[in-house]
Specification:
Strand content: 25-35%
Helix content: 10-25%
Number of helices: 8
Radius of gyration: 22 Å
Structural class: alpha+beta
Shape: globular
Strand order of the largest sheet: 1-20-4-5-15-14-11
Distance between the termini: 12 Å
Order of helices and strands: HHEEEEHEHEEEHEEEEEEEHEEHEEHE
Largest sheet: 7 strands, mixed
Number of strands: 20
Length: 313
């Protein structure tokens, strides 16, 4: 089945939150983020880990320009990750391990693992202590993860280590003997990384595309190490909270339009004097629809939140 079907719960949650989704294949010849110098979307979801070359006018440069213009991006990859997605990550200060590698943990793996110890049970204690990003209820149930490992650029202070692996984990090719030092070891192995750029654009990298899948959302979790069983993983709650932060539904200081004038008048004066009675009214726009500072008032009040979803072909 296609990613659109296997990850339908996540996409439906975005629609339920007011987003207008436009689905495109990564090799679609009509792919474009901008037209006549204006961005067509406010947000972008990239679930195309193995893409080598985008269709249309989309490219690594176009995506970095989108971020430079204030656009928010959620990226999901896996062990099939290609150089294109790795280059996008490098532009943001995140280094993704090579194609064919995976995060391996010989202690913290799920009972349904197929023998390579790559279906790991991520301890919620390794989540960043930031409820605005990961949610308030995600500290209860472990996370299922199967995918590639990442490391952060130590020179980039803007990188947020949202979820790290356990101290017993490492990133390597599960089909090869370990004869050299792994790309990432222990808690330096990032499972989820994020960045808020200096222009307030937000980007998140999740090394497991399965993390967002219907299967992982509804799957039971049981670690081989401690044997504790949970009827449902914490993936859906974490994915929802993370996407709300990335797309600026959370963690944003908002200043709405304020109208004011003297009592009995309709327009504001050039100045007020002491003891004058003033009428102050908030913007008619609800706070919930003021999601992006670069929207104009007409689009804000319409509640129209365009989001592009680019999937593997």
């Amino acid at each position: 089945m296609s990613v659109r079907e296997t990850h339908s719960i996540f996409f439906r949650s975005l629609v339920d939150r007011g987003y207008e989704l436009t689905f495109k294949s990564a090799d679609d010849s009509s792919l474009s983020l901008a037209k006549y110098g204006e961005f067509l979307f406010d947000n972008l979801v990239l679930f195309a880990p193995s893409v080598e070359e985008f269709g249309g006018t989309l490219s690594v440069d176009a995506i970095t320009s989108f971020i430079d213009g204030g656009g928010d991006v959620l990226i999901g990859v896996d062990s099939t990750v290609g150089d294109t997605m790795r280059e996008i990550a490098m532009e943001c200060g995140v280094e993704i391990d090579e194609e064919g590698t995976a995060v391996i943990d010989h202690l913290n793996y799920d009972v349904n693992d197929e023998g390579k110890h790559t279906k790991i049970v991520a301890d919620v204690a390794n989540l960043i202590d930031a409820p605005t990003i990961v949610g308030a209820s995600t500290k209860q149930v472990p996370i299922l993860y199967q995918g590639v490992g990442m490391v952060a650029d130590s020179d980039n202070p803007l990188i947020l280590e949202v979820l790290t692996a356990s101290s017993t984990a490492y990133s390597f090719d599960p089909d090869e003997a370990v004869k050299e030092y792994p790309h990432a070891v222990g808690k330096s192995t990032l499972l989820i990384a994020a960045i808020q750029a200096r222009n307030n654009a937000r980007v998140a990298f999740v090394g497991s595309l399965d993390f967002f899948s219907n299967d992982y959302f509804s799957s039971a979790v049981q670690s081989m190490q401690d044997g504790k069983k949970f009827d449902k993983s914490g993936n859906q709650e974490l994915a929802t909270a993370l996407s709300k932060w990335v797309f600026k539904e959370k963690g944003v200081l908002r200043v709405g339009e304020v109208k004011h004038h003297r009592v009995g008048e309709k327009t504001p004066p050039s100045a007020y004097t002491i003891m004058e009675d003033v009428v102050r009214m908030p913007c008619s726009c609800s706070a919930a629809c003021v999601l992006h500072g670069r929207k104009d008032k007409q689009r804000c009040c319409s509640g129209f939140n365009p989001l592009a979803v680019i999937l593997s072909s």
